[in-house]
Design goal:
The chain is α+β, with helices and mostly antiparallel strands and 368 residues long. The protein has a single domain, classed as Creatine Kinase, Chain A, domain 2, CATH 3.30.590.20. It is built from 15 helices and 11 strands. It is globular, with a radius of gyration of 19 Å.
Length: 368
């Protein structure tokens, strides 16, 4: 099923905020930026609000090549945004914002806005989605059980939204808190089978909590568009290198889960309430603080949980040649901090939101 980890494919979708280059306020220019990017040879997708765009990498087996493409996409789209009088920011919530966002004028997004009301109009949240190739839909659904316990530490690793409406939120990932207002968001249930998965999705649709299968917003889901399992728990990471590290860890976690399935080892059925506590801790303290180990039940640092994830996936990371890439960059993060720590440091230095926006802009295009 999993085969050689080196051959397992991975791709990344990154969502970005468009802002006014002077005030830092969200700028509703996604169509203009998408058209400029297309002329530059890059396909950019529109998101729910007109202040957001999304890029998608190709399919990769080499994480370093993926990293190179992530950097290129960020640079190209940032240049296109600048041409349209906007600034591209890799940030998971707007540091400054008006009350509400304009919804992108497409029939589907307008239907979502009408049905979900203020949840849609207060969106403007940017995440990162990692797709890992799997043999079939059954594998995508089953392996989600093995990925579930590691979702909170992946959130802590990428936390990049501590500041909202110009002030500290008290959370490293405020996006995670806001995102879970959607009725289908958060960790998925533990699935007994594919039929179990499909029956729950059908119930959600019948009950109106989703309008279509694309609105299954679980943080692990079987993709409706690609032969992949999609992990979507993360804030948009501050730098392209962090996104590449996330992709390496996600691929290794999925590969390790597939091998457990092959060996007949069932995933630990972590109760939903335990995961919700672990999520809250991850969103609250981020990589620099304590978290709940969903399997062991003890409170430990998120850095220890991250080390445990690397230990859990070490065989797969070695096979892909990603172990050194991951551990070396995590050493860098220990020194510099992820996006949440860097934003807070910028704000606390001079109590000036402009410093925060400049820090975000610098990290967005930071070279390796």
């Amino acid at each position: 099923m999993a085969g050689n980890a080196r051959a397992v494919t991975v791709g990344v979708e990154e969502e970005f905020l468009l802002t006014d280059p002077v005030t830092g306020a969200p700028a509703p220019k996604n169509r203009e930026v998408a058209e400029a990017a297309k002329a530059a040879g890059v396909e950019v997708d529109l998101e729910l609000t007109s202040c957001q765009v999304e890029t998608s990498t190709g399919v990769h087996t080499d994480i370093r090549e993926l990293h190179t493409e992530l950097q290129r996409l960020r640079t190209t789209v940032a240049d296109c945004a600048a041409e349209q009088g906007a600034r591209l920011l890799a940030v998971a919530v707007p540091p400054t914002m008006p009350q509400g966002f304009p919804v992108t004028d497409t029939p589907r997004y307008q239907q979502i806005a009408e049905h979900y009301g203020m949840i849609a109009h207060e969106q403007g949240l940017c995440g990162c989605h990692v797709h890992v190739g799997v043999p079939d839909r059954e594998a995508a659904i089953t392996v989600s059980n093995h990925v579930r316990p590691w979702l909170p530490v992946l959130l802590a690793l990428t936390a990049n939204s501590p500041i909202y409406q110009g002030r500290e939120t008290g959370y490293a990932s405020w996006r995670s808190i806001l995102w879970r207002r959607w009725p289908s968001a958060g960790p998925p249930p533990y699935f007994a089978s594919r039929a179990d998965y499909e029956s729950i999705v059908a119930m959600m649709r019948a009950g109106g909590s989703i309008l279509d299968k694309q609105m299954v917003y679980w943080d692990v889901r079987a993709s409706e568009s690609f032969p992949t399992v999609e992990i979507r728990v993360s804030d948009i990471p501050a730098t392209s290198a962090e996104s590449a590290v996330l992709a390496a860890l996600v691929r290794a976690t999925v590969t390790t889960g597939l091998r457990a399935i092959e060996s007949g080892r069932a995933a630990t059925a972590v109760p939903g309430e335990v995961l919700r506590v672990a999520y809250w801790n991850a969103a609250h303290s981020g990589l620099d603080g304590p978290g709940l180990d969903p399997i062991g039940g003890a409170m430990v640092s998120h850095r220890e949980l991250l080390t445990a994830l690397i230990d859990h996936t070490e065989t797969a990371l070695r096979e892909t040649g990603d172990l050194d890439f991951v551990t070396e960059y995590l050493d860098v993060l220990d020194r510099t901090g992820n996006g949440a720590r860097r934003q807070l440091a910028a704000l606390r230095a001079h109590d000036d939101i402009a410093d925060v926006i400049n820090e975000i802009a610098h990290a967005t295009l930071q070279s390796p």
